[in-house]
Specification:
Layout lengths: L14 H11 L4 E2 H8 L3 H13 L3 E8 L2 E8 L1 H21 L1
Antiparallel strand pairs: 1-3, 2-3
GO molecular function: DNA binding
InterPro entries: WH-like_DNA-bd_sf (IPR036388), WH_DNA-bd_dom (IPR027395), WH_DNA-bd_sf (IPR036390)
Protein name: Winged helix DNA-binding domain-containing protein
Length: about 100
């Protein structure tokens, strides 16, 4: 019997990263402050998890200015969307195997 845990994505095993991807997969883009509020985490915590997902090329970061204030927006990439789906499928397989 194959171990379904082998199909889990290490980058998505942390709950904050999974939450970030869950938000991004359902929106066209999300701003840093809004994401921080939705997830109820600190700037530093969000930034470190965003960096990890960015390294995997699961999301893109765009920086701009809105009324002279910096604005950072995140979007999920196709690679990220695919990885997220595979991770959810692996989680589902783990649950089914436990029944």
């Amino acid at each position: 019997m194959k171990n379904p845990f082998e199909n889990l994505d290490k980058a998505l095993e942390h709950r904050v990263r999974l939450q970030i991807m869950s938000v991004l997969v359902t929106h066209d883009g999300f701003e840093f402050n809004a994401l921080k509020e939705v997830l109820n985490i600190t700037d530093g915590n969000l930034a470190s998890h965003i960096k990890a997902l960015e390294r995997e090329k699961y999301l893109t970061v765009s920086k701009s200015f809105v009324e002279k204030k910096p604005n950072t927006k995140y979007k999920i990439t196709e690679r990220g969307r695919t990885a997220f789906k595979k991770h959810l499928d692996a989680l589902e397989a783990v649950v089914k195997q436990q029944k």
